[in-house]
Every structure is written in C-alpha cells, then in structure tokens.
Amino acid sequence: MNVDIHQSWKPYLKPEFEKPYFKDLTDFVKSEYSTYQCFPKGSQIFNAFNHCTFNDVKVVIIGQDPYHGVGQANGLCFSVNDDIKHPPSLINIFKEIEQDLGVSYPKNGNLMPWADQGVLLLNATLTVRVHQAASHQNKGWELFTDAVIKTISKEKSNIVFLLWGGFAKKKKKLIDTSKHFVLETGHPSPLSANRGYWFGNKHFSKTNSLLEQVDLSAIEWKL
C-alpha cells in the first residue's frame, strides 16, 4: 500500500506510519488488493486527506466502512463516485439537507465538494473487500483513524465533529470537548432513520451556525 497522503498531514501522522501495526496493516492491504477485488481504488484510499488538508479541516464526519459494492466507494465516507446510484444512508443525508436548508436533492452523490471546503469525511476503516462489509475491520485501520481524530483534537480548535450513530458516538472520548463542538444524532441508515433517530437533526444548519460563531466560513452543503 502506497501511503499517498497530502503533505500537510505528514508531520502529524508520520509517527503512526512508523509503528509496527501500520506495517502489518500495509502488508494486509497489499495482500488483499492483490488477491481480491477491494475498494476504494488504491489511489483513492487516502482521498479524505488529499481533498481536505490538515490546515483546512473545519468539520469531521465519521463513518465506519467504505461501501463494498462495485464502483461505489471513492475514499470519502458516505460518498459515491459520479453517476452511481445513491445508497440508502446517503439518500437520507440528502433528504435531511433538503428539509434543513431548503435546497434541492442533488443528482450526484459525490461529496468531493464538501471535502474541498474543509469537511474531513473519515471512515474508521479505509478499505473493504468486494461485497463483504466489515471485512477489513480490526486489522489496524481503526488505530490509525483514532490517531487522526486525537491529532485533530489536540492540534486544532473549534472543529465541528458530527457523530452519527452508535459507532461514531464512541469516538467522542477521543475529542477534547472543551475546545471543539460535538453534534450527535442517530445514523442515517434506514433502520435508524425510520425509527425517528435521524430526520430533524438539523446538523447542517447547526454546523454552519457554529462555524460562523468562530468566524469561519460556512459550508456550502448544496451539491
């Protein structure tokens, strides 16, 4: 695995790349990609970091796994490649944005424009085997992405962390809530959303309000 990550992150994450677990993780990912079809493409594994530099991070959204269907994952959590059918969770995210901000539902599910504005779309696990959800969990990725969250918490201030669902909420312990904002709600998956745990959270307008409070520009959520 080639750690193709934006230069701005390297001073902060270099210690992680040198730890034994990361070497083991690299060997595992190389083996998986050479043996099975895996996602996202090798060149996109670190897309979240390459489209949102360390200096630009204003918002962090935490996902769990990349999508495991063919052609879906592009290295950003909840995002799909251009012209790919929107998965159920992404549909519910867009529906909430529609209700919250009064913007029209987008045709494209590629969230790259969010990343380019400073939204770090971070999956806890950055790779997956085709049609096998969670197949690359507990191989080291979580150690790395937890270190990313802790680093952002330590080195920056006034970041808005959006924790959606039980898995993401467990990451709250990694965040210094005395100098960052944390918004929590249910997961946008149909199972959670249809039980009333997602819709009406207004996280998108709330995020922009918090950013503006600390003199940062709002995110243009409309795609």
Would you kindly provide a written description of the structure presented here, covering whatever features stand out?
The chain is an alpha/beta fold and 223 residues long. The chain has nine helices and six strands. The strands form two sheets. The chain has a four-stranded parallel beta sheet. Strand 5 (160-164), helix 7 and strand 6 (181-185) form a beta-alpha-beta unit. It is globular. It starts with 9 loop residues before the first helix and ends in a 10-residue tail after the last helix. The model has no long low-confidence stretch (mean pLDDT 97).
Features:
223 residues, 37% helix, two-stranded antiparallel sheet
What would a concise description of this structure say?
It contains nine helices and six strands; from the N terminus they run ααβαβααββαβαβαα. It is α/β, with parallel strands linked by helices. Helix 7 links the parallel strand 5 and strand 6.
How are the elements arranged and paired?
Blueprint: H1 10-17, H2 20-35, E1 38-39, H3 47-51, E2 59-63, H4 88-101, H5 112-115, E3 119-123, E4 128-129, H6 141-155, E5 160-164, H7 165-169, E6 181-185, H8 190-193, H9 203-213
Parallel strand pairs: 2-3, 2-5, 5-6
Antiparallel strand pairs: 1-4
